[in-house]
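ok here's Protein NDNF, seq below lol
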Amino acid sequence: LKMSWFWLYLPLHLLMATCLCHSINAPTTSSQQSFKTNLFNFYHSLILADGKETTIHLLKDIPKRYYFVLEEGRVLAPFSITVTPCDVPIEWSILVYKFPPGFPGKATPGDHDTQEVSKSQKTPSVVSTIFNYKGNSVETYMGMSSHPALYLLEFSSTERDTHITVYLTTDTTSGHLYPELPTDPRIDVVGVGPTTVTLTWKHSPSVLQHQESIQYCLLVNEKHNYKSLCAAETAIRSSGMKLPPTLALSLSPYLLEPQQVMILSNSELSIINKVSSGEVRQVCMGTKNTYTVPNLSPSTQYYFDVFIVNLLTNASAAYTGTFARTLEEPEPKVTELKDGKVIHVVLDGKKQKFYSLQYQARHKKIHFTFQLCQGQIRVHITRNGKTVASENLSGLRYLSLKGKLLDTYLVQLRSTEESNSSVKVQASPHFHKPLFPLLPESLKIKSFSKLRTCRSVTIAWLGTQEESKYCVYRKRIEEDQIWRELQSADRCSGPESRHKSEKVLCKYFYDLNPQRAVTTETIKGLEAGTFYLFDVYLFGPSGVPVRYHSKVVKTRKKC
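and the structure came out like this:
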């Protein structure tokens, strides 16, 4: 009687161990011997925590076992087990030990006064493996227990040391650790270009329920798709990288390694890892389910994985990955340069692409002229494929090159700043009539502070040894407009772009002595305490103007 009461108060897993001791000493059949072997595994197992994600490290070819118990009182109790391989494929299985109706612990105190426990009831019956899986996908087993049972989980890796995560829960009604995937978890490729790929995917139900704590994260790489976020992080680490925790994807302030680049724009965080197999990009974009991946390489295959991440639990679920190959970069359009013809080129600073001009020489000596109109531009010139000049342009630039007849010159121009830039280009034989007039040593306009009055200012500029035409223009401006006017000035535009009322005068002059080739002009009829913008245009024999650097002068307020 005392022993019967003793069985009632033993926890189920200790009860099984007690039964094992009894059964080892008893005569055995082959099925009982198999049971003893499995129960021996139980002694070398660890308890699997309920309601918590457990990280398990596996050594190659050495199984690791965990167990959990569903005790009496939980009739028809549901449970689920989710296993996430974080690297190579693994094998895992579930064994269950169930107890017959007359097994100790099932009887009431009164029953033991009149009943005898049969020999078959002294040992729990064994149900063979109820689940077995081998691979590297995330798998979930859903089960239901109708009576007390012990479950043994066995994990093994045959390729190499690795780690996995296991999540057991016996409370399936209070929500999910992992975010939910939609019924169709595929990623759709809706647009492909030479350097961009546009993706879209269906919303996770978790986004609608827990929008503040859920976000999408995208992984881009050139190797293959990943079936879980921890598998992706493991692969990056194995390439020699130290990856920030998953929450780094959700804007947490972790320090990056030297090989990593973090880009934050428009509330999106991008982490770019430079690994041996190419770039691995991680981008988190909140709850947006459409994203265009920028700055990809042309004609390259990329793999795309989307993960839905719970920022509170750090748990994630993976959409079905996809891949796409970017288009080939179109051949740059080449414009032909003709002798003496001027081409005005406007460059988009945001695209940072080269604009190409081609010129075939009909003479040995070739003269290139560049007039920078706006912005900053770099020029690169090749002759028959070999570089002959490469520099940043400034103002007016002449380049004289000597080669052979029918040499092919390729002129490539690129903006070096984000704003648009423009330049005028001319190619001609060396003896060809020059496009621009002879220029002075400086294109600056000087003003004389002592000669300023309330109604007039005096300016001066340098001339040349050639008789040329000079036209002066003025424009009243406000103080807060000065910087914009000076920065946006088109140095290639001529007087035709100015209002007639802004013209002050035109005059001719020259001096054979460059030291004395200077002229002054007093502009009258101005208002006191006012800012004025002054421009001087120089016209040569070809009629193409050269604009001096604009000058801002303020008249005196009191005289």
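fwiw The chain has four domains: 44-99+125-174, 187-244+277-326, 334-428, 445-554. kinda neat tbh
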